[in-house]
Sequence to fold (858 residues):
Amino acid sequence: MALTRNLRPGGKHGVASGETRDPIGYAVAALSRVAQSDLLDRIGLRKQAEQTVFTVTRGGFKAATSAGRTFARAGSSRKAGVRVPSATPAGVFDLTPTEDEQMLVDVVGEFAAEVLRPAAAQADDDCAAPGALLAASIEIGLPILGIPESLGGISEERSAMAGTLVAEALAKGDMGLAVATLAPGAVATALSLWGSEQQQATYLPAFTGDDVPAAALALNEPAVLFDVLSPTTTAVRDGDQIVLDGVKSQVPRGADAELFVVGAMLEGQPVLVLIESGTDGLSLEADPAMGVRAASMTRLTLSGVRVPGEAVLGETDGSTYAECVRLSRIAWCALAVGTGQAVLDYVIPYVKERQAFGEPVAHRQSVAFMVANIGIELQAMRLLTYKAASRAAAGKDFSREAGLARKLCADKGMQIGLDGVQLLGGHGFVKEHPVERWYRDLRAIAVMEGTVLV
Amino acid sequence: MIHLDDPKRLRTLRDQAHQVAMNMLRPVSRKYDRAEHEYPKELDMLAAMIDGLSESGASEGAGASGVRREDTPEKSAGVKNGTNLASVMSIAEMCWGDVGLLLSMPRQGLGNSAIASVGDDEQQARFKDTWAAMAITEPGVGSDSASIQTTAVLDGDNYVLNGEKIFVTSGERADSVVVWATLDRSLGRAAIKSFVVEKGTSGMVVERLEHKLGIRASDTATITFTDCRVPKENLLGTAEVDDKQGFAGAMATFDNTRPLVAAMAVGVAQASLDLTRDLLAQAGVEVDYDRPALVQHAAAAKFLQMEADWEGARLLTLQAAWEADNRKPNSLEASMAKAKAGRVASDVTLSCVELASTLGYSETELLEKWSRDSKILDIFEGTQQIQQLIVARRLLGLSSAELK
Fold:
């Protein structure tokens, strides 16, 4: 019966489907409905106006994606695009960044400290990055980091290591803003790594020009136990077109994005597909999450979206897709390392200052050892991430290293977020301090796929 | 350029050590676990081989003495992958074979590392061929090594040692023992010095050998010193009681030996991982690095977590050794490596027993042995808690008076 099913509490509000309501439960549920009604507001019973959180939509309204610029087709879809050579390490075990990498880290590190960190709390609240900040990120060249020099970028060789160091440095400022600023670069890097001559000639000029578009690498889907390698979004060939159906979740800056790279299953293999915003059948709704909120996350629905057959980016045998997944995971690991470092740098002065029982709490082993363990695990996370990134840059197989880095960064990164709040006690729980935001952000590492790329 | 793969130059050495571990240590691994206190005679031939390799330069200076830091500044710029890295890489492989046997390796004692770390050039030369054990711990003093009770009193050309040392690895088999003693208890840690006491010195008696949970192939001795006269030139380093340098110098040995012990932990944990991966595969459980751990078999998910932790421990160990090779301060990283590797080795070896069920628990396989051998690695050369204390003090910038 439809009516009794409606009265059953499960299936919404985070209530498991097996729950039942007893008479008191029904009474409370009814009261709750009244409390939610805006009747209270109209008759002035509720003092506090409901706060609007980033919602393009409420109550199921979906907006179509906005039509962006027209990307002028150029080049041949049969010819491979420009590729930068792999890095060629001398075979020496070494932890020293190259001079170029160090310079980049210095610049980005300053940007993170001076611009990202001060803007972080507000951006988290607004679920949006300030326009000036995004413009500045373009000015320092974030989107063109992975684009070959010959196509107007700055990459002379494979830049996975540089990308990792940059992501880490940004996330030390703020993870949400780091994702917001890195999202367009993820698409540009993907085009550089796997694009055909036509795809590169069509889209990359926009990224190397003055008016860099927002763009999103959309691999996440809203599914329990989501396995990114088996997306449920489908791509079906229909003549010389491909038809896509499915839902992608946690798509960064989707409302502004002019170009999407979407993961979908084509003929039994996962592939990446380029889709321009404004294409019929695309719709967006807000998808704010517990953290990484400054990246204005959206949910992208594809219903009967038609793109030309040559919109597939890279190989159709699943190899490009798998490589993309791994490189994204390295980027998320780098973000975890950066945010983990922010936690460590924040708790050290705090526990040395905060007094309890007549001395700084840092003088107690139970506190000090938590700090020690943050330091130890953070460095282990960093080393695993660097190893994976340097192997990727050198053109070596890095699937094992990326998998292990993700596991460690997901587990230990969350532990660091958890301990960061714990070390500040009640002060860690309130928004006066940033550790609660880092706690929310660090939960993302185990969950997120795609979105960022090195 | 950041590159964290094993260095090309040392891969041959690593692979050789692996072959030695597989073909020489593993075949007698269980034998000497059962025959505790019996001397592993096979090791003499192995030691001769290692000496030969060392003479030929093929060992890249690896081994217990490989931790020496040259004072002469090197002109050539560039990144060094030297004896410290060679040592941790080869020791990890040997401990993949057997930790107890590695610890019993002639001329590869921790005392040799101490001589290499704090001895002067004359002492290096004089003790080149000795097999030196290390004696710090006393019945009443463990982690608190600054408060040792053994005394050394200068009398003419000799120091006279009195005291009792316990848990001396290779204490019976080694040719000599590096003994920590205080010149003056009232002067605290600055007065602690180390002395090379050669076997047969009158007044030095090996009282007994311990029966242990693991590393049973290695002899662990209790040694007493009663009016034991040691030539004064056997005091390692300087005899001056300098408040700043004294104890710090002795402790500096640990910056060099902790990565070695971390390497041991990495090695034994790898043994467990390698075998367990194989056993799981035979049971139809494959570990996939791309699929999320949570959509895989629970055993595969556990394996991923262990391997990730293990890789972290290994890289921290390599980092600490790399810093030593490149003359960067590494106290913090050495302790980080030892803390991480110690606890990872326990988790890995014990979890592998659990994953392999009674096959892991029984003596049929070596998994149960490795889970016993690993425990000591989180204890000696500074316990887990001591490493955390060191890391915490360094990160927080607190003194030992502030953070006790």
User: Anything to note?
Assistant: Residues 246-282 of chain B form the longest helix (37 residues). The beta strands of chain B are 132-135, 151-155, 158-169, 176-182, 192-198, 204-209, 220-231. The domain at 8-123 of chain B is CATH 1.10.540.10 (Butyryl-Coa Dehydrogenase, subunit A; domain 1).
